[in-house]
Each structure stands twice: as C-alpha cells, then as structure tokens.
C-alpha cells in the first residue's frame, strides 16, 4: 500500500515511530494509501531547512523568482491530467471539476509571475530639505499554510506561489484526507528549479497544526477551512505574534427576484449547489426567492433536475456529481437531512440511501432539496458542506436582504435579477465579502482577492492577489539624507515641513 510521507529539504522524510492515517477512494470506500502524521520534530526539521535557504532565496532577484514561477506554471499545465486524476481518486469530485480547480490555481501562479511589478515600492525626493524617502516590500521569512480537503491543489496554489515569489520560504500542511495531489504538486515545485527548502510539506493533524502555530520562527500563517478551526488558528497564531489570514465557513444565499431569468436560475442552482457535491465554501446552499410565485417556479424547475442528477465515480465522464470525501462526512450530511425533517422543513427531494451498483461501499449521496425552511432551523444556520439545498421564501426584497445580512457567516452571496438598480442596492448593502450579480459562485479572479466577512474570515487579510503580496511582505520605509556640507544645528522640535 502506498505510504505518503513528508517532503523536507527536497527529500522524502519519514521520521521513525510516526503514526499514519488511512486515505480512501470515496467511490469504492477502499483504503488506497496511508499518510504519515507529523510532529513538532517534523516542523522543526522543515523550519531548519527553510532557515538555511532563506538568505539565498530572499536575495534572489524578483525577476529570477518570476522565471521560476513561469517554469512552475508550465510544468503544472503539462501534468494537470495526472493531478486531476489524483484529486478525483481521493476527494471524489469529477475529473472535469478537478481540472477546473487546477485551472483556477494556475491563475494565481500566473499572477505570481508578475512579482517584480507587484513588489515595486515608491520613491519621493525632497520630502524635506535634501531628504529623500523610499519604501519597499520585503519578505517576512518563513510562512506556513494549512489547507483543506475540498481543494487539495487549488488552495495550496492560492498561498505558496505568491509567498515564495515574494522571497519567503513556505511550509505546507495539506489535508490528510486527500494528500497525494498536494504531494505531487510539491514535487513539481522542485522540478521547476525552486531550491530545496523553499517549500517543505509536512502532513498531519492537530499536533502538526499546533507545532506550526507555536513555532517562534514561523512569522505568518494562512488557513482555509471551517470557522471553528479558523478562529482557533487565528487566536492561537496571534498569541505567538504571527500574522494570520484564516478563512472559515460559509452559508451562501442566492436571492432570486421575480424578474430573473428562471432557466438561468435553475442552471445556476444546480451547478453551485451540487458541483463538487456541495463541498465548497462558495457553494450556494440557500436560495431566497422573493415572492411565492418565484419560489414555486424555482421548485418546478429544480426538482426534476435534482432527481435526474447523474451521480457516479468522479473518473466516469458521464458523472455530474461524485461521492463525498469520507464515510464520516457522509454520515454528517445524512444527519443534517434527518434534522431538517425533524424540524419541519418540507423535503422535496430526498438524497439519502443512494446506492450505486458496483459501488455499494462508496460514500455516495443524492442531491436533497428542502422547501419552507425557516431561519431558526439547524439546516439553515449551520454549514452542511454537502449537496443539500434549502429554500427560504421572502415576501419582498428588503426581507430577503435582511435574511442575508443577519446570518453569522459573510463569505459569498448572489442575486439574480434583470433590474440594475436592485442589483446595485443589493451589492452595496449586503454585509458579505464576495457578491455575484447573476453569477452563482463569485470567486474573484487571481488579480483581485478572495475573502469573506463576519465569521467567515479572521485576521483582516484576503487571499491571493495584491492582498497576498501585502500579507506575505513587510513594508519598510527609509528616510535618508547625504551630507551636503550644510548643517543647521540640532533640532529639538518634531521634524516637519512647516
């Protein structure tokens, strides 16, 4: 059976006496590999490797680091089918969805290729008499990233390309549920000519995470995952003086106005709710139709689409939705559906107890659809992270907007309408970090930045784009004067241009 170990200083590292956890193929339920767990000793070894290479790497010119990013982009593109197959085999998402994930991650690598201009500082002459001032952005040192199971290639690429392009070294802690694609990605980094130690990979669970958060030589931590863990990462890392960006959970609403294109709405719901089996922090999980007639139309359109979803193994080209990632997560999603029925929501489509011939031990579930959900129900308040749609009907636009704004999460939202004024009002007044107008999954492109509001994000820093450049660097400003022969004596007042 395959053993997935750490990658430290460019080499496989399997410390003696370490435990391991199983990795499964979600389509078959079969254990396919074991991943070695990390300890504080593993993190210490990764930090030592990074500290040795950091002076050389941080002094490499930005244009040379950019050329490494160009090479990395080329190699990832060349091996994207191999990466996508690994994602599908361990996560469960369809092969085409996995390719899409890689494509969006590559856009961040492309952004990192422009690092010479992104790092450009500024210079002002004569800020005072014969005094000039300039500022630039310098690397922080050693940064770390803790990434989730749902995007084992894309989310790491949201982090380390910009971090190392800025001159930092990076320690990556991927999910232990689907680690093979992340491991291959780390090997490709070495193939691109990035020196060993610039990127180290350490697997593991809470012990590994705590070792990262508490290590005195790690200066910044990036995290994407659930809100409870994001909050823990933020508070624990900040306690040790680290810079933190921690992205948490979501409950994303789609408001549908009566004037919306209902066929477009139906397709948008299907793709955003059931793509990747709902295991996306930007998935739509709540549709809010404005007016009873709007809700009735949505039910009429969406119900048969959900019932006819093509569900199967991710590597089957006919599959529209694959299995969930683990049996534990499957049970969690089923429990939420049970809870929704108990709380009195109308279960329009029941996806429980789906069995596929030949894949009876797989972690499959069908799409589920609840109508007449109220905002006090668990299925509305909590993140299910599965293929479950809830419909909360709103009497008017203001009520719909109020529903969106009162939820504790503020990651993403969308409005579908033909009225520009309504769309503008919604975009301006919703208390959400990422907004789509007739776009169901408004994940920003790489040269903008990703980030939610409220309990969907901690630390005040967005991911990728210029937000990432600012996060992975420290601003230094120099004010200088060269002697010119003129000296006016000591000045005891605060210097100014008055």
Could you write a compact summary of the structure shown?
This protein is an alpha/beta fold. The chain is 39% helix and 22% strand.
Structure description:
The chain has two domains: 2-248 and 456-478, Aldehyde Dehydrogenase, Chain A, domain 1, CATH 3.40.605.10; 252-437, Aldehyde Dehydrogenase, Chain A, domain 2. It contains 16 helices and 23 strands. It has helices at residues 40-58, 62-78, 80-91, 95-112, 115-118, 154-165, 180-191, 206-214, 227-239, 262-274, 292-307, 327-342, 378-381, 397-406, 420-429, 465-471, and strands at residues 2-4, 6-8, 11-13, 20-25, 30-36, 122-128, 131-139, 142-146, 169-173, 199-201, 218-224, 243-247, 252-256, 284-289, 346-349, 368-371, 388-391, 409-410, 412-416, 434-437, 453-454, 457-458, 473-480. The strands form six sheets. Strands 15-16-17-14-13-19-20 form a seven-stranded mixed β-sheet, sandwiched between helices. It has a six-stranded mixed β-sheet with strand order 10-9-8-11-12-22, with helices on both faces. The protein has a three-stranded mixed β-sheet with strand order 1-5-4, covered by helices on one side. Strand 2 (6-8) and strand 3 form a beta hairpin. The longest helix has 19 residues, at 40-58. The model has no long low-confidence stretch (mean pLDDT 96).
């Amino acid at each position: 059976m395959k053993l997935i170990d750490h990658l430290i200083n460019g080499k496989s590292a399997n410390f003696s006496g370490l435990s391991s956890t199983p990795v499964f193929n979600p389509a078959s339920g079969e254990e396919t590999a074991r991943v070695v767990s990390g300890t504080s000793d593993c993190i210490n070894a990764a930090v030592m490797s990074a500290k040795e290479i950091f002076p050389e790497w941080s002094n490499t010119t930005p244009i040379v680091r950019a050329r490494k990013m160009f090479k990395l982009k080329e190699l990832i593109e060349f091996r994207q089918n191999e990466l996508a197959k690994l994602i599908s085999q361990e996560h469960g998402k369809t092969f085409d969805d996995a390719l899409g994930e890689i494509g969006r991650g590559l856009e961040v690598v492309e952004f990192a290729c422009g690092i010479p201009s992104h790092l450009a500082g500024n210079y002002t002459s004569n800020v005072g008499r014969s005094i000039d001032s300039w500022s630039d952005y310098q690397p922080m040192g050693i940064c770390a990233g803790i990434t989730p199971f749902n995007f084992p290639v894309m989310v790491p690429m949201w982090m380390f390309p910009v971090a190392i392009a800025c001159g930092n070294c990076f320690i990556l802690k991927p999910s232990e549920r689907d680690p093979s694609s992340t491991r291959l990605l780390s090997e490709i980094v070495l193939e691109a000519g990035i020196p060993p130690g610039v990127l180290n990979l350490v697997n593991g669970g809470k012990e590994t995470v705590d070792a990262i958060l508490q290590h005195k030589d790690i200066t910044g931590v990036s995290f994407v995952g659930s809100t409870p863990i994001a909050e823990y990462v933020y508070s624990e890392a900040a306690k040790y003086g680290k810079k933190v960006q921690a992205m948490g959970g979501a409950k994303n609403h789609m408001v549908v106005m009566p004037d919306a294109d209902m066929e477009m709405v139906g397709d948008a719901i299907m793709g955003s709710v059931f793509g990747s089996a709902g295991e996306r922090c930007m998935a739509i999980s709540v549709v809010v139709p404005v007016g009873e007639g709007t809700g009735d139309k949505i039910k009429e359109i969406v119900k048969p689409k959900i019932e006819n979803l093509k569900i199967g193994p991710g590597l089957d080209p006919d599959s529209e939705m694959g299995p969930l990632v683990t049996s534990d997560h499957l049970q969690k999603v089923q429990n939420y559906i049970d809870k929704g029925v108990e709380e009195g929501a109308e279960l329009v489509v029941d996806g429980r107890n789906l069995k596929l011939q030949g894949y009876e031990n797989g972690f499959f579930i069908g799409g589920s659809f609840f109508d007449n959900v109220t905002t006090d129900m668990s299925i509305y308040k909590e993140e299910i992270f599965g293929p479950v749609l809830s419909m909360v009907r709103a009497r008017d636009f203001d009520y719909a907007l109020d529903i969106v704004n009162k939820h504790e999460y503020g990651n993403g939202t969308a409005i579908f309408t033909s009225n520009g004024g309504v769309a503008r009002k919604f975009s301006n007044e919703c208390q959400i970090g990422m907004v789509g107008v007739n776009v169901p999954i408004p994940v920003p492109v790489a040269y903008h930045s990703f980030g939610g509001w409220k309990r969907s994000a901690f630390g005040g820093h967005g991911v990728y784009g210029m937000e990432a450049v600012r996060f992975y660097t420290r601003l230094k400003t120099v004010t200088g004067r060269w002697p010119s022969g003129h000296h006016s004596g000591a000045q005891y007042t605060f210097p100014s241009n008055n």
